[in-house]
From TrEMBL:
PROSITE patterns: ASX_HYDROXYL (PS00010), EGF_2 (PS01186), EGF_3 (PS50026), EGF_CA (PS01187). It comes from the Eukaryota. One of its GO terms (molecular function) is heparin binding. Its main location: secreted. Belongs to the fibulin family. It is found in: Secreted, Extracellular space, Extracellular matrix. One of its GO terms (biological process) is positive regulation of aortic smooth muscle cell differentiation. This is EGF containing fibulin extracellular matrix protein 2. The keyword Signal applies. Keywords: Calcium, Disulfide bond, EGF-like domain, Extracellular matrix, Glycoprotein, Repeat, Secreted, Signal. The keyword Cell membrane does not apply.
Length: 361
């Protein structure tokens, strides 16, 4: 008797007639009484193929064939990886891998939905490290700073610009640096005029002085003010107005004194350029045949001022040297009136108080 044979299930056909004996020891083939229904054998499943390890076995009706997987090509009997990167499938950078490839984008870009193209990344919308302002550009971004700041060498941080250190001419008095800007400050007694200049505060006009309205007058000068007595007349002079003192001719002591003293006040800035005309003296009374001369009677011991007579009726007080402040000068400017035909001589004094401010503005 022959040993039993085993066939794959798909090949086991129920015998209808006694099988023909086999002389080679293989399973006998039944002789069908009807046309047989042959079932296909999957050579790939039962590894009854001769495909190389790098190949894929593909079953076909009645047979099989060997093919290379995607990403490979057949050279001889072997499958060799296809270098897809040679065909420039990627916009930026291609990375080949066994049987496949992948696309990568340069910094500042990301893969599009087709996994091949690269689109710009808006870093500003994704939290770019700019401290103040971010501007997206193609493939990257740039940081910018607000006015008053400058970009740090790191490209992200904004540092305050100390405008005051760049120039000493930004402010008339003092420059104050602030984050992102600067401001100007003025000394006491002054206020800002615009944003950079300083203007004297007239305390007498604004009512911010401490003078007594009954007995004192407020005199404003650069940077401050002074309270002066309304009655500044000393004997033998008598007051005829707030600023005028008269020496009566009937009083013996008045014979050798100026007939009148008029009080005036003025203010000049420090370090004023010289020579500089600062005050004009004008005769108020005109006498026929009289001749007037003008002089500084007192208060000019250091020669800081001089008189320039302009004509018979007026003269100019001139600043001869730059003055630093704060200082105060009291100058007696005398006008001497003479009439030689009538042997007449008289004088009057304008007592001018000159306040020199502490600053050049």
């Amino acid at each position: 008797p022959h040993p039993p044979c085993l066939l794959p299930p798909l090949l086991q056909i129920p015998p209808q007639d006694p099988p023909f004996p086999s002389s080679n020891g293989l399973c006998p083939i039944s002789k069908p009484s009807l046309p047989p229904t042959w079932a296909d054998m999957d050579e790939c499943e039962y590894e009854l193929h001769d495909c190389q390890p790098s190949q894929q076995c593909v079953n076909t009706p009645g047979g099989f064939h060997c093919q290379c997987p995607d990403g490979y090509r057949k050279i001889g009997t072997e499958c060799v990886d296809v270098d897809e990167c040679r065909y420039r499938y990627c916009q930026h950078r291609c990375v080949n891998s066994p049987g496949s490839f992948s696309c990568q984008c340069q910094s500042g870009f990301q893969l599009a939905s087709n996994n091949r193209s690269c689109v710009d990344v808006n870093e500003c919308e994704m939290g770019a490290p700019c401290e103040q302002r971010c501007f997206n550009t193609y493939g990257t971004f740039i940081c910018r700073c607000n006015q008053g700041y400058e970009l740090d060498p790191d490209g992200f941080t904004c540092n305050d610009i100390d405008e005051c250190s760049y120039s000493s001419y930004l402010c008339q008095f003092q420059c104050v640096n602030e984050p992102g800007r600067f401001s100007c400050a003025c000394p006491e007694g002054y206020q800002l005029l615009g944003t950079r200049l300083c203007q004297d505060i007239n305390e007498c006009e604004t009512g911010t002085h401490q003078c007594s309205s009954e007995s004192q007058n407020c005199v404003n000068f650069h940077g401050s003010y002074r309270c002066v007595e309304k009655n500044r007349c000393l004997e033998p002079y008598v007051q005829v107005s707030d600023n005028r003192c008269l020496c009566p001719a009937s009083t013996p002591l008045c014979r050798e004194q100026p007939s009148s003293i008029v009080h005036r006040y003025m203010s000049i800035t420090a370090d004023r350029s010289v020579p500089s005309d600062i005050f004009q003296i004008q005769a108020t009374s005109i006498y026929p045949g009289a001749y007037n001369t003008f002089q500084i009677r007192s208060g000019n011991e250091q020669g800081d001022f001089y008189i320039r007579q302009m004509n018979n009726l007026s003269a100019m007080l001139v600043l001869a040297r730059p003055l630093s402040g704060p200082r105060e000068f009291v100058l007696d400017l005398e006008m001497v009136t003479m009439n030689t035909l009538m042997s007449y001589r008289s004088s009057s004094v304008l007592r001018l108080t000159v306040f020199v401010g502490a600053h050049s503005f």
